[in-house]
Amino acid sequence: MAGRGVNKVILIGNLGGDPELRTTPSGTSVATFTLATNRSWTDREGGKREETEWHRIVAWAKLAEICGQYLSKGRQVYIEGRLTTRTWKDKNDIERKTTEIIAEQMQMLGSRSDGGPRSGGGGGGQSDTPDFSADAVKIDDDDLPF
């Protein structure tokens, strides 16, 4: 494994809003949403402390469509993916940078009342926590909608 690295992110958190589902000019679906993770600890004085970290999640292809259909604000999910950073210039020609998690797997956690399917569909004896994995789809830079 010389010369190889590991880029793996595992998160369990709650959606900060409904996923935004778009389609690239070539027809590939892409969903973006924020995920909040919380960390609790006791400080030196014995006081309880809590911190929330927000993560930007991007899902592609079939996984994006599933996220758009089944996820909604507040829903607890397990996300597994990889970390990526992209750079662009805004309308004022100022360079901007953002770090995102490219989702490769998603599993819904909690009960259906925690934000079940947003658009019909769903029933039919399905488990409350189906596991979804991203299809192996090659994404060209021309497919990126941003």
User: How are the strands of the biggest sheet laid out side by side?
Assistant: 1-3-4-6-5
Which strand-content bin applies to the residues? over 45%
Report the principal-axis shape. globular
Q: What is the count of DSSP helices, taking H or I runs of 4+ residues?
A: 1
Strands, count: 7
Output the helix-strand order: EEEEHEEE
Task: State the main characteristics.
146 residues; mainly beta; five-stranded mixed barrel; 7 strands; globular
Tell me about this structure.
The protein has one helix spanning 61-70, and strands at 9-15, 20-23, 29-42, 48-60, 76-89, 95-108, 131-133. By secondary structure, the chain is mostly beta strands. It has a 5-stranded mixed β-barrel. It is globular, with a radius of gyration of 17 Å. It starts with 8 loop residues before the first strand and ends in a 13-residue tail after the last strand. 19% of the residues are buried. Mean pLDDT is 83; it is low at 119-129 and 135-140.
Q: Care to give the gist of this entry?
A:
Helix content is 7%, strand content 47%.
Task: Produce the secondary structure layout.
Layout: E1 9-15, E2 20-23, E3 29-42, E4 48-60, H1 61-70, E5 76-89, E6 95-108, E7 131-133
